[in-house]
Amino acid sequence: MSNSGPLLFLPVLTPLAAGLLLPWLRLTGAGKRIYTAGTALINAGLILLLIWGRPGSEGVLFWLAEDLPVFLRLDPLAAIYLALTAVFWVGLTFFSHGYIAADERETRYYAFFLGLAGVLAGLGLAGNIVTFYLFFEWLTFMAFPLICHNGDSEAINGGMTFLIYSVLGAGMVLVGLVLLWGEGPIAAFAPGGAWAGQIPSAGGGRTTAALLLLLFGFGCKAGMYPLHAWLPVAHPVAPAPVSAVLSALLTKAGALGMIRVLYYLAGPAYWRAAWARYLWLTVILATIFLGSMLAFREPLLKKRLAYSSVSQIAYLLFGLALLEPAGFAGAILQLIFHGLAKLILFLCVGVLIRQAGCREVGELKGVGRRMPAVMGCFALAALSLAGVPPLGGFISKWYLIKGALAADIGIFSWLGPVVLLISALLTAGYLLPPVISAFFPGAGVGGTRESFDVAGVTGVGEASGVAETGGAGGDAGVAGAGEAGEGTAVAGAGGQRATPASDWRLTAPLVVLTALSLLLALSPGWLLDYLAALSAALLGD
What we know:
The chain is mostly helical. About 70% of the residues lie in helices and about 5% in strands. The chain has a two-stranded antiparallel ribbon. Strand 1 (about 60-65) and strand 2 (about 70-75) form a beta hairpin. The longest helix has about 30 residues, at about 325-355. The protein starts with 9 loop residues before the first helix and ends with a helix.
């Protein structure tokens, strides 16, 4: 195995080392912001250099045994996941500077936040299933302290729920690997399947059971039914940037594991002939419908978005299960555009909680007039998730339906598109009315920022007399902006909550990420060409 030099390892080791060193540096608030922003920007630059300058790079990190390397490789799929991680992390870092400011646990937050970036990069670059499994395990223990960041009983409960489900999923993956251990060597991931031709025919019960364990184990992180219950528990208690990471990148890590199993390990030819494919398709469609229904009924903003993630990520899994070029392209497009949309939505909700005290859907009435930039970004991301053209969500869903109609999967060829269309209507039903209410609240509702200034009302935190801290107040109950604000007389004209002065570190990342999402949606040609070449290599079509 060749070694392509240190550049391959730097996107993993740089943020891990930066996170490990941070507690020892005793930096001030400004120093921490420079340190973390610099690390995010440098790491993004390293990733871009690697993607454009070293395609096909590979190298061994260490050896678990004489014939079992833990190694990294940059292939076309890894490049997509790494590029998303790089872009998202820069935006998340600047947003965190505004959101976690003055939090007494700021250093701990950034230490694990930086470490998580390194683990996600390692997950994307994993060159074989053992390497992927190791980073998949480390991912859990890096994310757990971030979910528990607020430190109250609800945060601890949410973190423990996440931990239990993650350990369960990882255990299923480990059992699946043990069952497959005798079927062939632990080879590097290969397009079309590293074990293609080595594992028994699709009728082999042991092999099929092992692959199902791998898929459902990785599906636990992806929020697939019935292992989805950690999302609506963990999301509401985590700080907004962490909720954004959970939905935009961590759940996609589970989906990435499924892609590796289906397309790079067992191979599409094996899975096309396996009866378990139809069991998996059934569970996926049930997840899509269930997630949409639960989101439609949920009044709490962050829980509504969490249930939405359950449904929307299952769209991605549906495209993977089709084993068809258009379906695969739709799955990867869903990974990208859903990641962008959910990143924007969760960050918007974080700002709404911090600056307007809006935790529930019914509290958004009129807030669009006071916070037009935030709600504008929210609206565009919501329209994308609902599949409104010409936004990114429409493109991904178009390819998913096209792939389903072309796939040889019997009843699922028409049942899948029907479920997708019903889910899209439900998505519009739970995301668009709040947007309409925010911008068009009706008569008698004050909305402009000026109306609050005239009324002499200052920021929510000042009105309640409680300092507003990023993580300690978090989304589970930000003092002066969340539950405390609801219990105090923090209101302006029309009975609406006052909005404190905006922080550019909160709004600028939203605007930039929304602009990037629009740019990709309006000029997707190069991305579609890239995915066509990738699907041809994987499916041989």
